[in-house]
Amino acid sequence: MLSLLGPRFPTAQGFSRREMIRIGGLTMSGVALSHLLTRTSSAESSTAKKHGPGFGKAKRCILLYLSGGHPQHDMFDPKPDMPSEIRGEFDTIETSVPSIRFGEHCPLSAKLMNQMALIRSMNHTHNDHGRGSYWMFTGAMYPGSVPDVNSMTRQDMPHLGSVMTKIAPGKGPMFPFIIVPHRMDVAGGRRAGQFAGMLGPKYDPMLTGGNPNDDNFRLEHLPLVPNEDLAVIRRRVGLVDQLNQQVDYLRDGALAQSLKENQSKALDVVGSEAVRRAVDLSIVDAATRERYGRTLFGQSVLLGRRLLQAGTRLVQCNWQRTQGKNGFAWDTHWNNFTA
Length: 339
Known about the structure:
By secondary structure, this protein is α/β, with parallel strands linked by helices. Among the domains are: 1-40, no CATH class; 61-67 and 141-318, no CATH class. The chain contains 12 helices and 6 strands. The strands form 2 sheets. A 4-stranded parallel sheet has the order 1-6-4-5. A two-stranded antiparallel ribbon has the order 2-3. A hairpin with a 6-residue loop joins strand 2 and strand 3. Helix 7 (230-245) runs antiparallel to helix 9 (254-270). The radius of gyration is 24 Å and the shape is globular. Mean pLDDT is 76; it is low at 1-13, 20-37, 223-227, 246-251 and 323-327.
């Protein structure tokens, strides 16, 4: 970044015209442009040496989305100096970074604090999960009401993963953006902000569906199971193509093209040995599966990691519970120690 007596400008994207004028004015005082560029390059080189050659160049990301939200004062943002009714019931522990403390129930995270970027100032003004999630997923405020946000439409802003899919989908057969295992919906509604919205269905994420903790887990939305004959799958796709050709209103429309592209992508996925192995959790050793936790969320995170290794660029793992038992999210509102 470069700042010349004003706001910062990203050097990676070049200099704006205004910044060039500022630089030109400085050359009259003996500050040459080449000297400025050399200093900027040296600073960037120093940063790379300090953090390693791959710093700032991550190509894949896993988003662990805890719908409802954990109580931050009990975990990553404790308030030990506040009155007891505010600071909560738990003690704090040291982390690997001096002066930063976590709640006592986060000992493993505390050891890794020196590898984290902890943001404690993030907030939003919505007092409901739906519009708050929309803001998190899209980076934009939801323009409608609380009931409206539970109705997904193609006028919605796109999820950041869908934007990435359009701009930088990466290479290889894998879907660039996958949600594991299900959308975060409520009361039968389809919450806005989780799909591509106005970008169109071509950039929607793939949903794995199912429960990765089940021994017979398979992708619900693709005919993908270990050792299934690819020739059989191709015959199924051929049959689908024949059926689609009989539907007049799909023949030449944009929707037909989108369906065709998605079917082609699906065939590439199921034909990839790396992808087939990624979703086959039965080949993962028992100790690794236990370390992630033999739960819906634990195995979803394990599956998410394997999907990234197979070529997916963004995996969003949603915290979900069984409907009708403990709710649909992390959020309990009551009985926090027994629910």
